[in-house]
Amino acid sequence: MAKLISALFSASDEQLMWRVKLQDDAEAFASLMSRWQRPIENLCIRMTGDTHRAEDLAQTAFARIFAKRADWEPSGKFSTFLWRVALNLCHDELRRSKRRGECSLEALDEVGDSVPDFIASE
Predict the structure, then answer these.
(1) CB of 32 closer than 8 Å to CB of 20
(2) Of 1, 4, 59, 116, which sits 20 to 30 A from 91 (CA to CA)?
(3) 107, part of any domain
């Protein structure tokens, strides 16, 4: 029963974002982050396959939204806006990592004793 009452009186994502936009309400933004941090991190993990990079990308998504809070217009749901920012960051990161030719240390362990060509020096 208490959970039902709490749900009835909790602010929507859009209401919280309005408070962030108009009043620079840090508490409202903290509420949005606590609601969405884990789902956004999970999205970034699925996209990149790297937990640490996903955490960084999720933080960057929230930082971008907060930095551009004055420009936010509620033309749709806040969650859709947040997911789009996070997806764009993931796509950008995947493009960057493809250009850099990155590989994980675990992948190097799987190679065994031989050193990959891009690491070997003369």
Answers:
(1) yes
(2) 116
(3) no
Q: Which residues contact 46 (CB under 8 A, 6 or more apart)?
A: none
Instruction: Using alpha carbons, select from 75, 27, 30, 33 the residue that is nearest to residue 58.
Output: 33
What is this structure's pTM?
0.71
Average pLDDT of the chain to the nearest whole number: 82
56: containing domain: 11-69+76-98
Is residue 110, in this structure, part of any structural domain at all? no
How far from 102 is each of 85, 94, 97, 113, 117, CA to CA, in Å? 23, 10, 6, 19, 13
CATH, residue 82:
1.10.1740.10
